[in-house]
Design a protein that fits this description.
By secondary structure, the protein is α+β, with helices and mostly antiparallel strands. 36% of the residues lie in helices and 22% in strands. It has eleven helices and 19 strands. The strands form five sheets. A five-stranded antiparallel sheet has the order 4-5-8-7-6. A five-stranded antiparallel sheet has the order 9-13-16-17-18, with no helix packed on it. Helix 2 packs across helix 6. The radius of gyration is 28 Å and the shape is elongated. The two termini are 37 Å apart.
Length: 357
């Protein structure tokens, strides 16, 4: 509430900076409180001298020196009476813990913690700069969602990839309240595994992994994907629903040839079994397919349910089809009629790549 008031007042009077009276003592107390709560490098920074339009010109001065200056120059100030109440954790730390640390452990403990904050700020700034560049490179943004290539994300160190995830969550949620180490680790674990998985997060947000893409989005945006239907470039690259589909033609000489069948994101179909033009779209009511190896057809809805594809991602599943019907449900199955057989001599290879940025 206080910060909202200050921002509104600054806007009203036309100020481009808001100066806070935090001293080095406030910085030290904040660092210790963050340590007791459980924190990473950013928490060890405590309070930054500059943060957006907020500045703290007294951050290198002690509270004692600040009060002395006010008294010597007859500058009136107010002190909240609650500052003397030990029922508040910060006051308890200020009045009892810090004096004890100075007496029994290190008389220069305040300078030590201030130095720790300075070093942490340097490391944090460096990691944030690296993260910003990677975020722009591998993420695709809308107002209420972020799509990230999970393969690219996992190619970076955990220190960086976890920050990319946190930045994506902040973009969608507006803040990182309740987003702890366990949350980011769980999302990264989903990205490391093959298959489909999802997790509901606070703030009405869901993180899901499908077809090598991590999607973080607000649940109310889940069904907002517009109907898409376009020609599939063969060979070439086609973007649909935030993903790229790469295609190429290849001669085929049996399962021991050069074609790789191992990736679930790749489909290999008999060129001559395809009828007419290949196109790609998202799902439609009534879609059916005969998955390779099955005797009859199945509803696409049932396949998505069996494969545990979350409702939020079902409209992003690419559906490749020809003049007869569905050829490939992206990342899940191909139709029986286009499967490779003994007479196959040419194939079309389709693969879902990183999200389009």
């Amino acid at each position: 509430i206080r910060h909202d008031y200050l921002r509104e007042t600054a806007s009203t009077v036309g100020a481009n900076k808001i100066a806070f009276g935090h001293t080095q003592d406030d910085l030290i107390e904040t660092v210790l409180l963050n340590v007791f709560r459980g924190t990473g490098i950013d928490g060890l920074v405590g309070l930054r001298p500059k943060q957006e339009n907020r500045i703290r010109p007294l951050i290198k001065l002690s509270r004692k020196d600040t009060l002395k200056y006010c008294e010597e120059n007859r500058i009136a100030f107010r002190e909240d009476s609650s500052n003397q109440k030990l029922s508040y954790r910060r006051n308890h730390l200020r009045m009892e813990l810090l004096p004890m640390l100075e007496s029994y452990y290190n008389s220069d403990i305040r300078a030590v913690i201030a130095r720790l904050s300075k070093l942490a700020r340097r490391d944090s700034d460096a990691l944030n700069e690296i993260t910003e560049g990677i975020f722009v490179e591998i993420c695709s943004l809308t107002k209420n969602s972020v799509l990230i290539s999970s393969e690219h994300l996992m190619s970076y160190s955990t220190a960086v990839s976890s920050r990319v995830v946190r930045k994506a969550l902040a973009h969608v949620r507006g803040d990182l309240a309740d987003i702890d180490l366990e949350t980011t680790d769980r999302i990264l674990e989903m990205c490391a595994r093959s298959g489909v998985s999802s997790v509901n997060l606070s703030g009405n947000v869901k993180a899901s992994v499908y077809a090598n893409v991590l999607s973080i989005q607000r649940l109310q945006e889940a069904h907002s994907t517009l109907a898409v239907d376009k020609s599939l470039a063969v060979p070439g690259l086609t973007e649909i629903c935030g993903q790229n589909i790469s295609t190429q033609r290849s001669n085929y000489g049996g399962v021991n040839g050069v074609v790789d069948f191992t990736s679930p994101l790749r489909a290999v179909v008999d060129t001559h079994a395809v009828v007419g033009e290949l196109r790609v779209r998202n799902r439609r009511v009534g879609d059916r397919i005969q998955p390779f190896g099955m005797a009859g057809t199945r509803k696409l809805q049932d396949i998505l349910t069996d494969k545990k594809v979350s409702r939020e991602l079902r409209d992003r599943v690419p559906i490749v089809y020809d003049d007869v019907g569905i050829v490939w449900v992206g990342g899940l199955c191909i139709d029986h009629r286009v499967a490779i057989g003994q007479t196959t001599n040419e194939v079309i290879i389709m693969e879902i790549l990183a999200p389009a940025v």
